[in-house]
Amino acid sequence: MPRTRLAPSPTGALHLGNARTFLLNWALARQHGWQIVLRIEDLDGPRIKPGADAAAIDILQWLGLDWDEGPVYQRRDLAPYEAALVQLAAQGDIYPCRCTRREIAAAALSAPHGDEHDLRYSGACRPPEPTPLDYRSFVGEGVAWRMRVPPETPSFHDRFLGCHVHNLAETTGDFIVATKEGLPSYQLAVVVDDARQGVDRIVRGDDLASSAHRQILLQDRLGLPHIPRYYHLPLVIGEDGRRLAKRHGDTRLAHYRAAGVPVERIIALLSRWCGLPGPPAKSAVEFAHRFELARLPRAAITFTAADEALLAQ
Ligand code: GLU
User: Which of 94, 189, 89 is nearest to 146 (CA)?
Assistant: First the structure.
């Protein structure tokens, strides 16, 4: 049976933009009979907020979403990430990098969303030829590891965007797969998790479409049998054209809930944002019955003052 995942990062509270993506992911799964794994992406040490995992679960349930497995926490089983790093090092696909923290910060642990661009890595530590190495013999040395990126990146077929083209050598260069602290990067963790959890349908914001190229490269070098089907969907943005975030005011679902906004009103706004024809849906289940991917607006959705007023009525 196909499988997808809901993968919140407990780095902050879920806002309306996250809610829309999760609702879409959940609705596609329930329409097509995919199983759903709830995965808490809790590897990004410094940005993890205590209690944000439980709060995210609570809000997803409030929205009316459910799942078939999980919550699965990444931190609870780090061995499979290490096994992948051992394999990649033995194949000469990754190499240790001793560049400064400042450079490494640019290729952070978290999913690189929209405005947090990765800096292109100069290749300062890259060996001229792929060199097989013993990953474990570097443990404790405080080195990061980078993936050798080939000069050309193959395109992939996205179920929503169509053919997606991106040249990693020109944008990120060799990207981080493990940090100096010995933790896997977001890119590596996602690939290992999707494979071990049998996830073959990935639905998420289109700010992660370029990450898919990094993830497909890793899947290929790890010899993973299936490239998942990707659905990268447009994001919700503020009136300034930037991805919805704190700067656009308090759009946390917990905030609306505490203010007494009924969940039906949230679902109604999300269903309007998803191109649902006719009257807005009143529940996640009704949304899943009526939603058609073909009607999803192709451009980003703008959260306006009028939307805010509608929620506050
Ligand atoms: N945890 C990631 C996020 O919060 C999701 C990454 C993914 O879907 O691959 O955006």
Answer: 94
Q: Residue 9: pLDDT above 70? A: yes
| Tens of pLDDT, residues 151-174 | 999 999 999 999 999 999 988 899
Is the CB of 56 within 6 Å of ligand 1?
no
pLDDT band with cut points at 50, 70 and 90 for residue 124: confident
Distance from CA of residue 298 to its chain's centroid? 19
What domains does the chain contain, in order, with CATH numbers? Answer: 3-73+235-312 (3.40.50.620), 79-189 (3.90.800.10)
Q: Residue 121: CB partners within 8 Å, gap ≥ 6?
A: 97, 99, 103, 106, 107, 146, 172, 173, 174, 175
Query: Which residues, in sequence order, are CB contacts of 92 under 8 Å at separation 6+?
Result: 129, 130, 131, 132, 133, 148
pLDDT tens sequence across 168-214: 998 889 999 999 899 999 999 999 999 999 999 999 999 999 999 99
Report the pLDDT averaged over residues 35-45. 94
Tell me, using a 6 A CB cutoff, whether residue 187 lines ligand 1. no
What distance in Å separates the CA atoms of residue 257 and residue 36, rounded to the nearest whole number?
Answer: 25
223 CA from centroid of ligand 1 (Å): 23
Question: CA-CA distance, 221 to 81, in Å (whole number)?
Answer: 14
Ligand 1 pocket check for 190: Cβ under 6 Å: yes
25: number of Cβ within 10 Å = 23
Give the pLDDT confidence score for residue 148 in this predicted structure. 98
| Residue indicated by tokens 């808490």 | 40
Distance 81 CA to ligand 1 centre (A): 17
The rounded distance, in Å, linking the Cα atoms of 10 and 48 is: 6
Higher pLDDT, 249 or 205: 205
